[in-house]
Amino acid sequence: MSIKGLAVVLTVLICAAIIQGFPMLQRGRCLCIGPGVKAVRVADIAKASIMYPSYNCDNLEVIITLKRNKGQRCLNPRSKQASLIIKFKEGIF
């Protein structure tokens, strides 16, 4: 094997070793971007969903589905309204 061939093989092996250390599938596929809103009018809430931290997302997410096809809102899980919803959903109330 020539010196050029050996250099190419060595370069490929080093690159493979470096790439091996980086995760190929990044975590962080959270549904909520940013901290979310602090509160939503209770009359507008159709459904509340709690997404606990998992492999896909490290964050606790509280997702509110609004009535009359107004979409969904992410509620800040540290807000007072979100903590009440979490307690209610877990049956701690």
UniProtKB/TrEMBL annotation:
Compartments (UniProt record) = Secreted
Instruction: Read off the PROSITE patterns from this record.
Output: SMALL_CYTOKINES_CXC
- InterPro entries, sorted: Chemokine_CXC (IPR001089), Chemokine_CXC_CS (IPR018048), Chemokine_IL8-like_dom (IPR001811), CXC_Chemokine_domain (IPR033899), Interleukin_8-like_sf (IPR036048)
Q: Where is the Chemokine interleukin-8-like domain?
A: 27-89
Q: Does the keyword Disulfide bond apply?
A: yes
Q: Which UniProt keywords apply?
A: Chemotaxis, Cytokine, Disulfide bond, Secreted, Signal
Signal sequence, start to end:
1-21
**What family classification does the UniProt entry report for this protein?**
Belongs to the intercrine alpha (chemokine CxC) family.
State the protein's name.
C-X-C motif chemokine
> What organism is listed for this UniProt entry?
Echinops telfairi (Lesser hedgehog tenrec)
